[in-house]
Design goal:
About 40% of the residues lie in helices and about 20% in strands. By secondary structure, it is of the alpha/beta class.
């Protein structure tokens, strides 16, 4: 046996073992599931022992795999840290955060000054993400996403239950005195966020008039929906937790007090053991500031 198997085989093994899934490892490494399976078999042939117990719908580590995994993770961590420190000295205090666009603008930006004052030597690079493909395939990135929980250990909610409620421009709000007035104005849908208009109507005990002719605008970006509402193009459904600044500034007005709880919320995805000290400092600050630490 040679001293070392190919590094790519070890990366595939580490990802598969961490997720206990060839499918999730393939997604993380941006390769096909068959490529992951093939490289695991090559590694097993190389070391002369099976590393996984393959079930019909499950994947488990063998005793040999469980013993091997911590050493591989430690070695990969050393390689990452060495590469960062030796080949990017100017960026050693720089951290990158891939964040949901609306969270970046409405929640993080008004509060990031608190982190910068606490850690003035850390440079922060915020990469707004709109589409799922805007996120990184690397497991050692800091990511902030909007959605339902995945159940993974490295995922932390940034808010308790989030609710949605009608929002509109102040000029329209003065013309709305009853929930039935919703149908006098256009409807704005943010497809990237919850827009359960049917449930909202049930909650307010209203029904669309017969032969209703109502303009409807849809967009995949919550921030664009906000601009549509600011331009008096209709009523949107705002989200608690991130809409406070819009309401406090008077840019948009919340209509009535009844709200509908939704299953989605904002999540921090970060694996502390794979992050730098500065990246972990940011994660700790974020969870503490959001009240979820």
């Amino acid at each position: 046996m040679k001293d070392l198997p190919p590094l790519q085989w070890l990366r595939v093994f580490e990802s598969s073992a961490r997720h206990l899934s060839f499918t999730q490892a393939a997604e993380e490494l941006n390769v096909t599931q068959s490529a992951v399976s093939q490289q695991i078999k090559l590694l097993e042939n190389y070391v002369g022992e099976p590393l996984f117990i393959r079930g019909a719908r499950s994947l488990q580590l063998t005793n040999a795999g469980s013993t091997y995994l911590p050493d591989i993770q430690h070695a990969l961590h050393i390689l990452r840290q060495s590469t960062r420190s030796n080949f990017a000295p100017s960026d050693q205090h720089r951290i990158t955060i891939r964040s949901n666009w609306s969270f970046s603008v409405l929640w993080l930006t008004p509060r990031i000054d608190s982190f910068l004052k606490a850690y003035p030597d850390i440079s922060v690079n915020i990469v707004p993400a709109i589409w799922e493909t805007d996120y990184s395939n690397k497991s050692d990135d800091i990511e902030i996403r909007f959605g339902t929980p995945s159940g993974r250990k490295n995922e932390f909610p940034l808010s308790k239950a989030i609710s949605c409620f009608p929002l509109c421009a102040p000029e329209l709000a003065t013309q709305i005195t009853d929930p039935q007035d919703f149908f006098r104005f256009g409807r704005i849908n943010s497809l990237g966020a919850a827009t359960p208009w049917g449930k909202i109507y049930q909650l307010y005990d209203v029904e669309p008039p017969v032969h209703l002719q109502q303009t409807e605008l849809s967009t995949h970006g919550y921030m664009l929906a906000i601009e549509m509402a600011r331009c008096k193009l209709g009523i949107m459904l705002g989200l608690s937790f991130i809409s406070d600044s819009l309401i406090d500034s008077g840019d948009l007005v919340r209509l009535f007090e009844v709200e509908l709880e939704i299953p989605e919320t904002y999540y921090l995805k970060a694996e502390s053991g794979r992050l730098s000290a500065n990246e972990n400092r940011f994660c700790d600050w974020l969870l503490q500031y959001s009240g979820m630490s």
